Amino acid sequence: MFDNEPNYSSYSLDELFDAYSSIDKDSFPERFNLIKKLSLKNKVVITNAPSVSAKVMKLVNSMLRLIA
Fold it and tell me: How far does Cα 47 stand from its chain's mean position?
């Protein structure tokens, strides 16, 4: 049997943003919450990285505004 659960922990930040933007949160509330959790975790890692591109930070900040 195939496991159709996406492995969000292996997604890049761009992929998490795409998943967050397109997921049906009413049909998949657990997946939605996991994406949100991983996105926030990635923001902490990215914020602490010495060389973060402006594009990535803009994407993270946009995503956080969507979550709030």
Answer: 14
